[in-house]
Amino acid sequence: MTAPRKHTEVAVGILVRGDDALLLSTRPEGKPYAGYWEFPGGKIEAGETVEQALRRELHEELGITIAGADVWKVTEHDYPHALVRLHWCKVTDWSGDFEMREGQSMCWQQLPLDVSPVLPGALPVLAWLAEERGLPNAVVTPAA
Ligand SMILES: Nc1nc2c([nH]c(=O)n2[C@@H]2O[C@H](COP(=O)(O)OP(=O)(O)OP(=O)(O)O)[C@@H](O)[C@H]2O)c(=O)[nH]1
After folding, report:
1. Would you say the pTM of this structure is higher than 0.90?
2. What is the mean pLDDT of the chain?
3. Looking at residue 118, what DSSP letter applies?
4. Ligand 1, atom 9: nearest CA belongs to which residue?
5. What whole-number distance in Å separates Cα of residue 92 and Cα of residue 46?
6. For the residues 40-63, what does the mean pLDDT come to?
7. What is the ipTM of this complex?
8. Which cofactors does this protein require (predicted)?
9. Ligand 1 pocket test: which of 8, 9, 10 has the largest number of ligand atoms within 8 Å of its C-beta?
10. pLDDT in tens, 54-71
11. Can you give the residue ranges of every domain in the chain?
12. Pairing outcome for strands 106-109 and 70-78
């Protein structure tokens, strides 16, 4: 019997602008799935809450400071490189100007997205966001 894989806990931010647009960014070079579109976030470090980890990651990656973040959904995805547990937070309040500190690209997107490919682990959340907006599931761009 093989030991169960340990989850990597990840905090992810769904930044929603006043016009309902969502912020997506590309994964930096050197990481698995480099160039894929994702929601900004990263691994939760020992002793951090989801909110603390997200505040740190969004500051490190994007240069912004978020006010608060509540977990909206929790999903899991089994990648060859890691079994991840994603803690998804909607964020509507932040301060600071966006700076791509890791050389990523960013864009504000309405649904359906017009960027691809998207990280497979983000697809369930895109489907829920579409459902919330009364859009059919089929509008969510699958990973290429
Ligand atoms: N940020 C982010 N990560 C996601 C999303 N969907 C998804 O499956 N993940 C997975 O969650 C994990 C996040 O890890 P990461 O590598 O981005 O985190 P990090 O910046 O702390 O990494 P590092 O410290 O190794 O540089 C990756 O395995 C990634 O594939 C998403 O939409 N956004």
Report:
1. yes
2. 93
3. B
4. 121
5. 26
6. 98
7. 0.94
8. Mg(2+)
9. 10
10. 999 999 999 999 999 999
11. 7-139
12. unpaired
